[in-house]
């Protein structure tokens, strides 16, 4: 019984620590979404040059997109004329760290680790883009016919819908993985004895390779993986091994790799995976050298300091709990209670592969709605389907094309 209570206690500690930073990160991400339109990003990434790769690596860092949510955006960039190297840089840097995950890192592991995480993400993305531009030029471009209508929302429209964007696009995209990540962090903290990794896996290099093997196929987002990494550091894992997990995990997953192949081709995807693996280990080794020279003082664990007043942390926890409760009630409980299969009531039903989160759902919805004559679009992540009404059945091919342009496979 005491052990179960200890698990709940550790889960609460992690949850209470990250909640207020996560909410603040959502606000920053929403501001970026409002102030920087996608067209601005596209206009700077079209050239097959070092400059486009540099900008792409830089633009991707603050955006709160996960490893599956970044693929539709990257596909849009590619179809709008972005170079293959710039597209790869965006795919690498965007899911590795964002405004929300940086603040959680700052909260749980410290400012030095957080800044080093950003620098590592940027350098890894930059190297991947440069290598792809040099060695991936022999591939034929991925292209989809641009025969659908699209319109980017104005700043006023984005501001009006920013609460829904925070609740569904941002929180919805990581709700499940965030809750699971905090629970796993609490279990690890309660289950493993102190100095576990120093006792049973003393080799920093082997621990980095182990984290790399674990991270590459897993689907984890930057925010949800941070509490897990913090708990592992607390149990004696080297900061470098934790960094490998935080860089490789969010940037890769088994489901997303197939989508990346579709966007940039097999050769560029192999370069992308190789640079993530090699870059993560190199940056992890460098972090271990720095922390080894200065001791682990640059890596500060939240249990060892208290940066914010207790009332503010509790307020953040209450607010995040309310947001999660509303999301699960609105998106899971209410549809379950209705017990209606609304998908079958509509004219058209398509199976869509590659949808994993609310970002994916939003991208597919926008793609279908971009075709004239579509209405009542409904996406089911659980079933992997999209249903809609269509005035002109001859436009069904355009709907499929629009979904494919967004980076998904459709049947």
Write the layout of secondary structure elements.
Elements: H1 2-35, H2 38-43, H3 50-60, H4 70-79, H5 84-96, H6 99-108, H7 111-135, H8 155-160, H9 162-191, H10 196-200, H11 204-215, H12 222-234, H13 239-251, H14 254-264, H15 266-294, H16 310-338, E1 348-353, H17 358-369, E2 374-380, E3 385-390, H18 396-405, E4 409-410
Antiparallel strand pairs: 1-3, 1-4, 2-3
Q: What does this molecule look like?
A:
This protein is mainly alpha-helical and 411 residues long. It is 68% helix and 5% strand. The chain is built from 18 helices and 4 strands. It has a 4-stranded antiparallel sheet. Helix 5 (84-96) runs antiparallel to helix 7 (111-135).
Structural key phrases:
single chain, 411 residues, mainly alpha, 4-stranded antiparallel β-sheet
């Amino acid at each position: 019984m005491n052990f179960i209570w200890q698990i709940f206690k550790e889960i609460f500690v992690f949850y209470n620590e990250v909640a207020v930073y996560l909410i603040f990160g959502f606000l920053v991400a929403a501001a970026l979404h409002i102030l920087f339109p996608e067209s601005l990003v596209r206009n700077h990434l079209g050239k097959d040059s070092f400059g486009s790769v540099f900008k792409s690596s830089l633009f991707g860092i603050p955006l709160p997109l996960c490893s599956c949510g970044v693929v539709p955006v990257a596909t849009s960039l590619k179809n709008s004329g972005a170079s293959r190297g710039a597209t790869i840089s965006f795919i690498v840097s965007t899911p590795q760290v964002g405004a929300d995950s940086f603040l959680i890192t700052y909260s749980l592991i410290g400012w030095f680790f957080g800044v080093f995480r950003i620098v590592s993400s940027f350098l890894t993305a930059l190297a991947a883009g440069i290598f792809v531009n040099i060695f991936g030029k022999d591939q034929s471009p991925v292209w989809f016919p641009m025969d659908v209508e699209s319109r980017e929302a104005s700043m006023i429209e984005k501001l009006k819908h920013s609460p829904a964007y925070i609740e569904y696009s941002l929180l919805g995209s990581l709700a499940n993985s965030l809750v699971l990540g905090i629970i796993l962090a609490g279990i690890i903290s309660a289950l493993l004895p102190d100095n576990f990794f120093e006792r049973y896996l003393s080799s920093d290099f082997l621990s980095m390779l182990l984290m790399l093997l674990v991270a590459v196929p897993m689907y984890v987002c930057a925010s949800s993986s941070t509490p897990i990494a913090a708990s592992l550091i607390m149990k004696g894992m080297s900061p470098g091994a934790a960094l490998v997990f935080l860089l490789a995990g969010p940037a890769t997953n088994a489901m997303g790799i197939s989508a990346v192949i579709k966007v940039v081709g097999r050769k560029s995807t192999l370069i992308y995976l190789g640079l993530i693996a090699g870059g993560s280990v190199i940056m992890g080794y460098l972090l271990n050298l720095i922390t080894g020279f200065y001791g682990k003082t640059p890596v500060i664990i939240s249990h060892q300091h208290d940066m914010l007043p207790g009332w503010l942390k509790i307020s953040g926890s209450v607010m995040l709990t309310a947001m999660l409760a509303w999301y699960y009630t609105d998106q899971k409980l209410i549809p379950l209670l209705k017990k209606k299969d609304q998908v079958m009531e509509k004219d058209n039903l398509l199976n869509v592969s590659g949808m994993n989160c609310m970002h994916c759902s939003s991208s597919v919805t926008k793609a279908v709605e971009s075709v004239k004559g579509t209405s009542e679009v409904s996406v089911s992540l659980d079933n992997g389907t999209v249903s809609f009404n269509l005035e002109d059945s001859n436009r069904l091919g355009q709907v499929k094309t629009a979904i494919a342009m967004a980076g998904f496979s459709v049947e």
